[in-house]
Amino acid sequence: MTEKRSIVIIGAGPAGLAAAVRARKSGIKDILLLERDYQLGGILKQCIHNGFGLHVFKEELTGPEFALRYIRKIHELGIEYKLGTMVISIDENKNITTVNEQDGLRIYKAEAIILAMGCRERPRGALRIPGTNPSGIFSAGTAQRFVNIEGMKPGKTAVILGSGDIGLIMARRMTLEGMKVKAVCEIMPHPGGLTRNIVQCLEDFDIPLKLSHTVTQIHGKTRLEGVTVTKVDENYKPIEGTDQFIKCDTLLLSVGLIPENELSEEAGVLLDPSTKGAVVNQYLETSVDGIYACGNVLHVHDLVDYVALEAERAADSAVKRIKGTNPQKRKRMTVTTGEGIRYTVPQIIDRDEKDKKIKIYFRSKAILKTVRVNAVCKGKTIYSRKFKQLVPAEMEYIRIPSEKLKGRNIIIEAVKK
Amino acid sequence: MKREMVCIRCPKGCRMTVEYEGTKVLNVKGNSCSKGLAYAIDEITKPVRIVTSTVKVINGELPVVPVKTDKAIRRNLIFDVMEKIIEAEVVAPIKEGQVILENPADCGADVVATLELRKVTND
Amino acid sequence: MDKIKDNYDIMVIGAGVVGGLIARSLSFFNAAICIVDRHIDAAMGASGANSGIVHGGYDAKSGSLKAKFNILGTAMMEETCRKLGVPYKNTGSFVIAFGPDDELELARLYENGIKGGIKGLELISGEEARKLEPALNETVTKALWSKTAGVVSPYKLNISAVENAVINGVDYLRETTVTEIQRTENGFNVITDKGALNTKVIVNCAGIYADEIAGMVNDGFFSLTPRKGEYLLIDRSEGGLVKRVIFQTPSEKGKGVLVMTTVDGNLLIGPDANIAASKEDISTHADSLDFVYKTALKSCSNLHLDKVITSFAGLRATPDTGDFIIGESRKVPGFYNVAGIESPGLSSAPAIAEFVANEISEILGGLPYKENYIEVLESHEFFRDMTMDEKERAIKENPEHGRLVCRCESVTEAEVLESIRRPAGARTVDGVKRRTRAGMGRCQGGFCMPTVVEILSKELKIEKEEVLKGDRGSYILAGRNRG
Q1: Which CATH superfamily hosts domain C1-89+150-223+320-379?
Q2: Contact predicate C42/C175, CB 8 Å
Q3: What is the DSSP string of C213-275?
Q4: How many angstroms away from the CA of A165 is the closest CA of chain C?
Q5: Does B15 contact chain A (CB < 8 Å)?
Q6: Which among A12, A228, B102, C91 counts the fewest CB atoms within 10 Å?
């Protein structure tokens, strides 16, 4: 059977929760929040460390506390949600097929869909680390769940590959639980996670961070017995003669997150190969009319606060669509990445007179010191802002005055000056 | 001695360069306000951290409950506090903010639950 | 050991695909039978790590056992798979040539096949080949098309065969390593690390260790060399790049690097062929995988390394005799070797099983059939393959289908439970994975592994820290942090 809803939100992590609360507060009554887990809150429940909420709640919270603040609002506002519910498919007509224990198979037809499915971790296979296939190799998030939710110890001695934030947080977490973290290896010449985490998770505990190093061989037939760690050159190729064997029974992989877009693709949502998330305009609308995306399913964020804020913007757009006040799309422009820029969100600007400024989020390709980030239309710089430093681990943004936009394309570049 | 630091006292995240000798701060560059200066001095003289971990739960819907120190504690006390956290047990139901350990290891902070957990009778 | 009788009529050593299918064929007879295997699950040796190809049978030297059983086995494969509920597809295969030298070899293979009576062989031009397989490179000049070739799930065939044997009353003694064999008046006293067993007949299906088992009865007339093949398994999004199994023209080293879509829909490239460091060495290496990738690129240039989900290696049990070794020992009556079953061993296995079972029956004076033996397994459709209506019905009948454990492969909790509860069921995370595909998808178990660990711990009534990934020692968790 098919049921109708104004807004269906897929995923009840920080993005989905924030979007639901915002849409409800804007007067939309029939919102449905779908979550595959048996609790609301998504990955925040296992992120028991502090550092969340500075932007949204103006206080420092742990992940569970951050989630609880939204979950309470969901209950207060009487927003409908379904747990243990897997979305099997979405189509371009915004029919959502779900399955769960109580309802069996159910189809919802939505006026607007907000995609908030988050991301998953890159597995070992994607790295093609050769060797054996023993137990003891975990993605950092899986280990985090074992430690923080189940109270289990993944091993005794660990090496962490990748200096993404979850890996750094787990280095500290495992150390506090009595495990020996022998090294964190990072193939890039700069850390992948936030500086704050480098300081408080590694330096505080004298855990060595080996930059420009990677794991090149896995050893051990049944349980992991050790890894070969090798220095890499500027092209990330292992340098001969720099192999070092590190004995360990646990290898944690913190080598990147991939937006979880299988459902989006099925609905015909166009993806950006750089973000692996949807191509969106400044209203966070995807290539499919009435489907919006926000949070880590759109692009991997550095802070959960930004996820929540982005989700509110997606909710605002969905609400406008339902109320019939969505902006008159005028002229479509594409946003392309220039020198030094890895990606931008949005990738499209649908120019509208009502917009005063267009906010464009971006990440740099490398650590860049004292650069100008320029917006270039038809060969002319229409906006420029100085940055003391750009770090790939951190998202930044610029706000471009709408009236200065010209032509069909805008290039965002970071140039030394 | 010189150290690069990111101030975490507000979301701005100023990148600072701190010159110091032992525990004496000589110069701080890059901060945009006095909070940055204070943070730099604290980091060099008496660094403090919030400790987060889990405590064993009896009769709870989950086997452990996440906890934190309700204030930042001296960094050199982290492992002493952890020792107490590892020994602790709490019976469900648990409320967010519930004090699990009072001033463990004389650290000046309480350890409180950061999640609510329901009681589950038997499995 | 799971169950023990003091005296068996037949002991099958090895629960690989050959041992499993032989035990199944033997289980139709009225006899006391056991399978003894050193691993915790079936398909943990070469049977779980190979290409999963049903070969056309054109390349084995006509008159050899390889040729004989390949042709017979390939003809039996579809029916055997249907009976056991094992995925099989008759895809056909190409051997492709890149110029005159290769073309000469193709012509030789073609003639060898025709001489052996192989049906469905055709030599086609490069253009014709590309018309059928658009992903093939322009450099392909000719192809030998074998229409009878196909793909099968090798570990599923293996696991289902053992299950079928167990259903018919065969004792499956897992994690039992044979250390010594003594001849007795009525047969053999087999010493294992779990105790001694008597049996009248031994069927030696010990894979890469078959020469050592034969040595235990002082009949080690052959020796086996482990030749390693390394593979790269690529995401299902890339599956279907080729419909047929694409071989390159073979050399002395083997059938060469292939490109294929597995029966599960992944793209698979490999294997290379190198002597392994030991019979336990199944590690992969950067240079070998690099060779596999570069060689595969010669066939299809459209291969994306960033979509690789895992690499693995398998060991071929290459005999020094040049052919399969199948038959009763000349020196030791009642000791029956089925050894050196390298490629096309999987293709040959159904035919070998039937042949060997009949031979063993004769050795034991002609065994009567059981009255109600089972040879068809109750097949069950996977949730992911069901239509919407079927899914709805499945959840109504069993709400555990409403709980998806593995979201990449749409595996339900009901299916995970079933995989553990079936006869000869899963005992490990890898065992659940092979039976259900939970953890085989793009996230490689990152999401479902903790759930599978929890279900295994509940079902097997063991602590979470006792749950294993594979064989003994492969514990996943080191213990509890609290309590």
Answers
A1: FAD/NAD(P)-binding domain (3.50.50.60)
A2: no
A3: HHHHTT-----EEEEEEEEEEE-GGGTTS-SSEEEEPPBTTBS--EEEE-TTS-EEEE---EE
A4: 17
A5: yes
A6: B102
Chain B contacts of A50, Cβ < 8 Å?
A: 50, 52, 68
In chain A, residues with a C-beta closer than 8 Å to the C-beta of C476 are 135-136, 154
In chain B, what residues touch C482 (CB-CB under 8 Å)?
Answer: 54-56, 63-64, 86
In A302-331, the residues whose Cβ lies within 8 Å of chain B are 305
Q: Tell me the CATH number at B78.
A: 3.10.530.10
Considering only CB atoms, which residues of chain B are within 8 Å of chain C?
A: 54-56, 63-64, 86, 89
C-alpha dihedral (B105, B110, B113, B119), degrees to nearest 10: 80
Do B33 and B64 lie in one domain? The reply is: no
Residue A126 scores a pLDDT above 80: no
Please give the structure tokens belonging to residue C346: 């999987």
Q: Is C278 on the interface with A (CB under 8 A)?
A: no
- Taking an 8 Å cut-off on Cβ atoms, the answer to whether C481 and B64 are in contact is yes
Report residue A311 as tokens.
Answer: 């989700």
**What is the C-alpha separation between C133 and C241, in angstroms, rounded?**
8
Instruction: Give B4 to chain C, closest Cα distance, Å.
Output: 35
User: Residues A315-343: pLDDT tens digits?
Assistant: 999 999 999 887 776 789 999 999 999 99
**pLDDT of A141-187, one tens digit each?**
999 999 999 999 999 999 999 999 999 999 999 999 999 999 999 99
pLDDT of residue C59: 87
Q: Answer yes or no: do B56 and B6 share one domain.
A: no
Question: In chain B, how many domains are there?
Answer: 2
Q: Which residues of C are catalytic?
A: 55
Show the domains of chain A with their CATH numbers: 1-120+256-326 (3.50.50.60), 123-255 (3.50.50.60), 328-417 (2.60.40)
From A134's Cα to the closest Cα of chain C, the distance in A is 7
Name chain B contacts of A387, Cβ cutoff 8 Å: none
The verdict on a CB contact (< 8 Å) between B54 and C483 is no
Q: Residue A97, Cβ neighbours under 10 Å: how many?
A: 17
Owner of token pair 């996230």: C443
C478 to A36: CB separation less than 8 angstroms, yes or no? no
SS3 assignment, position C339: strand
pLDDT over 70 percentage in chain C: 98
pLDDT at C167 over 50: yes
CB A389 within 8 A of CB A349: no
- What fold characterizes domain C93-147+226-317? D-Amino Acid Oxidase; Chain A, domain 2 (3.30.9)
**Which chains, if any, share at least 3 CB pairs under 8 A with chain C?**
A, B
Residues B74 and B90 in one domain: yes
Instruction: State whether A45 and B115 contact (CB < 8 Å).
Output: yes
Alpha helices in A33-181 (DSSP H): 63-76, 140-148, 165-176
C480 vs A151, A216, A223: nearest CB:
A151
Task: Tell me if C163 sits within 8 A of C424, measured CB to CB.
Answer: yes
- pLDDT, one tens digit per residue, over C253-296 is 666 899 999 999 999 999 999 999 999 999 999 999 999 999 99
Mean pLDDT, chain A, integer: 94
All residues of chain C having their beta carbon less than 8 Å from the beta carbon of residue A147 are 481
Parent domain of B90: 52-113
The ipTM (two decimal places) reads 0.92
